[in-house]
Amino acid sequence: MNRFRRLRKTQALRDLVAETRLSVKELIYPMFVIEGEDIKEPIPSMPGVFRWSLDRMDEILSEVAASGISGILLFGIPGTKDAVGSSAYDPDGIVQRVIRQIKAKYPNLIVIADICLCEYTDHGHCGLIGEDHATILNDETLPLLTKMAVTCVQAGADMVAPSDMMDGDVAAIRAGLDAAGFESTPIMGYSAKYASAYYGPFRDAAGSAPCFVDRRSYQMDTRNGKEGIREVENDIEMGADIVMVKPALAFLDVLKEVSEMTDYPIACYNVSGEYAMVKAASANGWIDERRIVTENLTAMKRAGASIIITYHALDVAQWLKEEQA
Ligand code: PBG
Ligand code: ZN
């Protein structure tokens, strides 16, 4: 009785019938850029990931460009923060300057600007805060996000990705980009973004942990799957060109459902906490990093993602190259 085993006999046969294949072109590498000089600062909870200053970024960008990865997702860490996140939408802010430099040297790399205020506000929230120090001022935040998006695209960004989870963000940014003459710049919405403990290491990296209350009044409740579908539908109605589910691994059910419901390109974000767990376990010799990462990313793809944002991107690109050789 070899009914199912016939096609599992050899690697060549298994490769022939594989339903899911990883490809370097579907990968996006997130990067942290920091104000200052001569900085390549390790992030302790994210081994192998660094904060880069503008003058040293080439060390990593040349590697990214050679790897064949399609694009990078940029997070800026400014020199000064304030209550309204001013440096987020300063045409000469850290992210805007970085974008100009990258596009001048690597015109073919897709540069995506993450749009959010939390790395730029002194309170660490993604939007403006009311006088009560608890309420997020949704509508008042929208023009600032729009300004950030427009300045980033003016600097040369190929795409913007609002991660703020304010209602109406995609529509406001779409209108702002169109008005500024950027009708052809796509928006990747962080559509179903959950209030997740998996963002812990990122907040260390970006220094963006909120200093009072948490993000549960704007990010999604992790208990809700259907609500994720509603958020995706809403982002598409507002004009998102790519939708996203974030985090990836604990929300594969949402990813799968989104893929059954829409034909739009779907991204998933393999977030910092997912990365940190794999790195910690493999540093201890408890798991096989390469096989675990491959299995994780394959699961995301199988569930319906066509774009994977991951801190493992450079390693995966290398492994895929080795497989081809
Ligand atoms: C900022 C933002 C976060 C992430 C991406 N954009 C953090 C947050 O919302 O707290 C998380 C990325 C990661 O954990 O790797 N809005
Ligand atoms: Zn944010």
Would you kindly provide a written description of the structure presented here, covering whatever features stand out?
It is a single chain. With 325 residues, this protein is α/β, with parallel strands linked by helices. Helix content is 39%, strand content 17%. It has 11 helices and 12 strands. Strands 1, 2, 3, 4, 5, 8, 9, 10, 11 and 12 form a 10-stranded mixed β-sheet that branches. Strand 6 and strand 7 form a beta hairpin. Helix 3 packs parallel to helix 4, helix 4 packs across helix 5 and helix 8 packs parallel to helix 10. The relative contact order is 0.13. Ligand PBG binds next to helix 6.
Helix run count? 11
> What is the C-alpha radius of gyration, as a whole number of Å?
20 Å
Helix content: 25-40%
Residues in β-strands, percent: 15-25%
Identify the overall geometry. Answer: globular
Gap between N and C termini, in Å? Answer: 35 Å
The helix/strand series, from N terminus to C terminus, equals HEEEHEHEEEHEHEHHEHEHHEH
Instruction: Give a quick account of the main beta sheet: strands, pairing sense, barrel closure.
Output: 10 strands, mixed
Bound ligands, each once: ligand PBG, zinc ion
What is the SS-derived class?
alpha/beta
